[in-house]
Specification:
Distance between the termini: 20 Å
CATH architecture: Alpha-Beta Complex
Number of domains: 1
Structural class: alpha+beta
Number of strands: 17
CATH class: Alpha Beta
CATH topology: Amidase signature (AS) enzymes
Shape: globular
Largest sheet: 8 strands, mixed
Helix content: 25-40%
Order of helices and strands: HEHEHEEEEEHEHEEHEHHEHHHEEEHEEH
CATH superfamily: Amidase signature (AS) domain
Length: about 450
Amino acid sequence: MQAHLDRIDRVDPSVYAICTLCPDEALAGARTADQRLSAGLTPRPLEGLPIAIKDLAETKGIRTTWGSPLFRDHVPEFDALHVERIRAAGAILIGKTNTPEWGAGSQTFNTLFGTTANPFDLSRTVGGSSGGAAAALAARMLPIADGSDLGGSLRNPAAFCNVVGFRPTPGRVPNHPDRMAWSPLAVHGPMARSVADVALLLSVMAGADPRAPLSLHDDPAAFARPLEAPITRARIAWTEDLGFLPVATEIRAATQSASRVLESLGCAVEHAHPDLRDAPAVFQTLRAFHFAARFGGFYREQRALLKDTIQWNTAVGLSLSAEEVGRAEIAHTRIYLRALAFFDDYDFLALPATQVAPFDKRTEWVREIEGVRFENYLQWMEVCSVITLTGCPAISVPCGFTPDGLPVGLQLVGRPGADRALLELAHAFETATRFGDRLPELTG
């Protein structure tokens, strides 16, 4: 524990990944873990491992702000369900990781704690919204981390920071508390420096809970077993752009070898993709609906304390008609069924995890890719957000680097519920390539 705290003290002043640090409590927890082990008690799955929780999840006795000035000094009296499980598994909370305000946007900055820098280039962004978690992992300030994902918030920062981020099948990690518990869009999930560590953390976070109506009842212990498994007959669809998305040339170049790696593992790889052309509009409508439900009161009463993009997204949601939301829900169902049919022919889908490389951290969001201009802050990350609508598990694993030495991630997608099989494929790719072994050269 002291080694990790020393690392944070040395590196984080230049990275800004940890927004709240509790060193005394962390060391006390480490002493308790030592006492348990000295007494001969069986180690729990995460015994003694330091973890900082994303600042969107409640942590009992530790400040939780959601990156918002509205909750600058908020200290919850309870843990979110997945945090409760992480503590019970023996992990020791050392604080919180930075996130954009309310987790909105794939760029980690807020007015409370500033901007998180990419450990591979301190002038670049870490993405988001689990950006503090990804940066802390890349800089070796943490061994494991949690995150959440609505439109790519586990996958995008993992790709930008050369670590692993896993969006599970909705319900795999129950959301509680959650005021919109019937929605499958936002999920909690694990992040780590390897696929095996992601699977270990998932084995603790997963498992049904009656308060979460979408809970999956599979035994989470399955994720703790070794991931080595034969994938030689897997049928994989490969696409660089889903047939319609602009993807930067350097991302295409860095990911083009992925299909050859998968073939070398014995997989059958074909160029193919599901039809998701209608998914961006559906995602934007459903996301705006969620923003209206969640932030409508703040928008009406304390609008000045919300950042511009949240104000815009909430205003769009408040302007929606019931018919528009209903049409989006119907289209969402069609997208899910289309994805299911696609996975009758293929076991996995492989594609880039981002459409651009990490950009200047002073840039709030990407306005253009390969000559295609965007109208809002959501459109440059559609390679992740459209996958969200399929209800499929998706993982980002390190896939190489740009000529400037910036990390690039590969997104692997499995059929709904096939989280274990997807982790096995990701582990095989990781083992074959070892891109994740490359560490940043930090100046701090």
